[in-house]
Amino acid sequence: MKNYRWQCIDAGSDYCPCYLAETMDCITCSHLQGKEFCDCNWRGVCIYQAFAFEGDKKKVPREDMEALIVKKEEHGSNITIFTLKVPHYMARQLSQPGSYIFVRNKKLNQYFDAPISIMSTDIRKDLIKIAIEIHGIKTKSIKDVNDSILIRGPYWNGIFGLEYLKQTKDSNSLIIARGIAQAPAMLLINYLLNNNNQIDVIIDEGSSNYNFMKEFYGNENVNIVKECDLYDLEVIDYIDKKIALKNYSLIFVGASNFLQNKLLNNIESLKNKKIVTLNSNEICCGEGICGACTVHDVNGIPIRTCKTQIRDKSL
Ligand code: FES
User: Fold this and answer.
1) Which CATH superfamily is domain 65-155 in?
2) Does domain 159-280 have CATH number 3.40.50.80?
3) pLDDT, tens only, 211-263
4) What is the best residue among 287, 296, 309, 310 to mutate for testing ligand 1's pocket, by most ligand atoms within 8 Å of CB?
């Protein structure tokens, strides 16, 4: 059996212990999985002790709050970008790459909660920016909202490989992103820029028909090397050669699960590289409860990807 080091993104946070501790399904703590021994491999504050300290209860979970829409921009027929005013702690905690929130029209109930990645934050003004591609039942219900919107967060597991990302300093990175995945890629690019990295970007506007990377035009540390169709076989060949020629310390691949797997399986030079990928699984509750986001590892063990960091994408 191959052992992975899964890690709960919420472990040690203001939201730990959570509902899963109360149901004895904690991702990290073996005691809170009903076992008699401790083998958690977690180096932070003891989750079992924190649970006992709370009187065998979870901490206060994330709740809905109303956020003022400061700006709304529409691009083409299906991309809407909202700038929202949020409490200071939210703006700060959502600055980490992979952050996301649930948003919904305040006239509707929680069935309409849609998980949306954070595109950028401004912690001096307590603003966050999110981009929504309008194409489904949930996102259509948000399109005509103009004054305020309900949000729930912060959530952080929007990308896998955070550990690799945090190690990347003073080096070269390659970003490959398609469609609406360009939005979370922007938060990631800003993080890499803050750590003195040079960044090459390959984008495919996909169904968004929008180039989010325009914002980086003129930035000497961000080089848009190709705008293309990532489904094109010649592009796969181009990326393979590009990676083989340049010494990238980190590569981000952001697209649907289908395309991410296609690129990871077909680009030989991606093997043995530090890869960060987008969590493109279906996220519904974000709390590890509903099971919508579950994938199975090579041992058949179910992994709730809304909360679990996956280091090895060979699931
Ligand atoms: S989204 Fe509900 S368990 Fe992950």
Assistant:
1) Translation factors (2.40.30.10)
2) yes
3) 999 999 999 999 999 999 999 999 999 999 999 999 899 999 999 999 999 99
4) 287
